[in-house]
Design a protein that fits this description.
Blueprint: H1 2-21, E1 25-26, E2 34-35, H2 36-45, H3 50-62, H4 75-91, H5 98-116, E3 136-141, E4 145-154, E5 159-161, E6 165-169
Antiparallel strand pairs: 1-2, 3-4, 4-5, 4-6
């Protein structure tokens, strides 16, 4: 019985907290409001600490983004914030401090990760219909090695490959 009362109290507290957390928003006038909790959650998921998230929040407020949390998935917003940060650090003449350089390098690493996660960099073959004649293919044989071969003929029933060449093997001969 006591456990049930405590559970109900915790659920009520969480519900009230969620309802009132919408009043504290990140972003200025005319921008989509994002709760500080959502912004902090995105920042923590992206690998930044609280102090860095606070700085990113301030940068997001100054940027022209509709949604400040877009900083964590929009390359353009991230570029704008990095540019503003570098400008501020140069103006204060603290750009070359090790902690600022470390933070900037982490921002650039995060930006690079965002860039590489774009669909144009994940161009794998999604179906066998995309395999064409004279295309080089890589065949990975688990516990043995990696082979390369060329597609000689494509038919609706079969594929004809050239003799595979061993590229890398785990087994010593």
């Amino acid at each position: 019985m006591i456990f049930l009362l405590i559970t109900i109290a915790v659920i009520a507290f969480v519900a009230i907290s969620i309802k009132t957390s919408g009043s504290k928003t990140v972003g200025g006038s005319g921008k989509t409001s994002v709760s500080w909790l959502q912004f902090q959650s995105k920042g923590r998921d992206s690998g930044f600490n609280i102090k860095e998230i606070k700085l990113l929040q301030d940068l997001a407020k100054r940027s022209s983004a509709q949604n400040p949390a877009a900083l964590f998935w929009s390359q353009n917003t991230m570029d704008t914030c990095i540019k503003d940060l570098v400008t501020d650090l140069r103006a204060k003449k603290i750009l070359n401090l090790p902690e600022n350089q470390d933070f900037l390098s982490r921002l650039f690493e995060f930006r690079k990760k965002m860039e590489l996660e774009k669909p144009r960099y994940k161009n794998g073959i999604t179906g066998s219909r995309e395999i064409s004649t004279l295309q080089t293919v890589q065949v990975v044989v688990q516990d043995y090695g990696i082979f390369y071969s060329k597609v000689l003929a494509v038919n609706s029933l079969f594929y004809k490959f050239a003799a595979p060449r061993l590229f890398y093997t785990k087994i010593k001969f």
